[in-house]
Amino acid sequence: MGFDRTGNARGKKPSIKGRKLYVPQMSHGGAVAFAAAFRSVGIEAQVCPDSDARTLDLGGRYTSGEECLPARVTLGNFLKVVEQPDFVPEKTAFFMPTADGPCRFGQYAPYLRKVLRDIGLQDVMVFSPSSRDGYQGMGEQVNELQRNALRGLIAADALRKMLHMTRPYEIKRGDTNAVHLRSIERVERVMERQGIATEQRMRDLVAALAESREDFHAIPVRSMRTRPLIGVVGEIFCRLTPFTNDFLIRKLEEFGGECTLAHIVEWVWYTNVEQKKRLQQAGRSISKAMLAVQIKNHIQHKDEHRLYKVFEEDFRGYEEPAIEKIFEYSEPYLPHGGALGEMTLSVGKAVFHYHQGCDGVVDISPFTCMNGIVTEAIYPKICADLDDIPIRNFFFDGTQSDLDRDVGIFMELTRTYQARKKRPRP
Prior knowledge:
Largest sheet: 4 strands, parallel
Distance between the termini: 60 Å
Strand order of the largest sheet: 2-1-3-4
Radius of gyration: 21 Å
Shape: globular
Mean pLDDT: 90
Structural class: alpha/beta
Number of strands: 8
Helix content: 40-55%
Order of helices and strands: EHEHHEHEHHHEHHEHHHHEHEH
């Protein structure tokens, strides 16, 4: 039997019914919400184990060192599942989506399948929907699952934003992290319930977020919005997973900064645009498929607006740009029509952060990541065009390093820029 371009056996329609599905932690909150969405449609799902030294050890046994860090981390955490006493190969599935473009992410799922076959675990299913169809292949109840999952990711993004806005100013260390974790659990309880009408679930989710907002407001804090504001962009897994970036955001906070981190759902809006572009290129601009994409995109943005409405006052000055605005900002440097993937988003978002009034931009990428290499070559031109706003690439390969010197220098540059910048924060 042959295999298709993503490593799935040809002629087989994958099913995750009757299996326990493990979701990688690309941000803890996002993974928790995503797993809960699967449970809401009757699929047993849970988050992969936390990353640690064992993760790198297991992942390193089956990688050469030339792969990017997220590949090693996700593989290592899946192999930690294999070590669990209740592991049953034919009852287990690993969630590993795929995508087109220059990123090696598109090879994660095929390589994971290869490793599992090599170690005799070919009965483990690798569930791998693709960005090519906007991740439509997510099971039999795709519409309900996809809508519920996106709502969960949006909620997790909003709560992470509240975390990063509040934590640098907390008086008692640990208060904000505790509230954030309770808030994620609150969202999880809403997300995982089965047999709930779409509108009822939305009302419950809005109520959960409103309650979480009050909890964040109850945290004793010092004066807000006084620190240099750092926009954080880069490769999606590495920037959203503290373990893979050596907890860089916490280090920036310890050196006096406040961070605003690019969201997960930014990638969803990007894949929606790419799906429409592919239909247009195939001569299907007027088709049922295009209508379905347009309707899906409209509903998704409507849900986003309703959930973010809870935090409307809090997020003034922290608004997320529309994907079209990101493309507009990237156009002079890296046009999205000619470049695929996160490099375009990172470049456009860096320019946006300048107009937003940020005091610096950090790009987080795995070592040897093409997206990071390309953006690093472009940022000097952006800096020259935008009042020499500080922009710094940080690359990570899983080895321990002392970032204090580099972070300290960068933060000094942001404070200098903050004192002279022409675009103040709203």
